[in-house]
Amino acid sequence: MEAIYIPRLAKAPEQTEYVQVKEYFSALATLTPVQGSLQVTHRGNYLEVSAHAETIVTLSCDRCLQQYNYRLSINPVELIWLQEPDKDADELLVEREVSLEDLIETISPQGYFEPDEWLYEQLCLEIPQRQICDAACAGIQLDTQNTEPTTDRRWASLEALKNQISN
Length: 167
Description:
By secondary structure, the chain is an alpha+beta fold. It contains three helices and eight strands; from the N terminus they run E-H-E-E-E-E-E-E-E-H-H. The chain is 17% helix and 31% strand.
């Protein structure tokens, strides 16, 4: 996907650009290409970005370690403020107080909006943190009937000393 030059977007019809998406992202392992659409609208002092995209990813279950396919579907809407970057923010400070206003997404009004990067970030945010293949997944099943307690031979000397002291 091509980057969108923000001053050009401000002069576009209805100040909106539509992007059809059907591609793989190299940093995101998917079984199918990411398919959908993205809309970027210039609203004067901010961009309104919305999208609908789907793909299928392969995840590993946290309980049983089996791999399973997961349909990833997103419908994000985000406002990105157009503001020149703060010159003081570039300094490498060991400690810096962050105000609530600094926690919003900003981009230079003379810069570029990267739709592929934004879409990749939105997809990554939608991947479940707790990856469970099925609600009834019991996890790894251990055969506890036919197993005898295993002893680590490295502790044998300590076990012998313990037996001598208790006798």
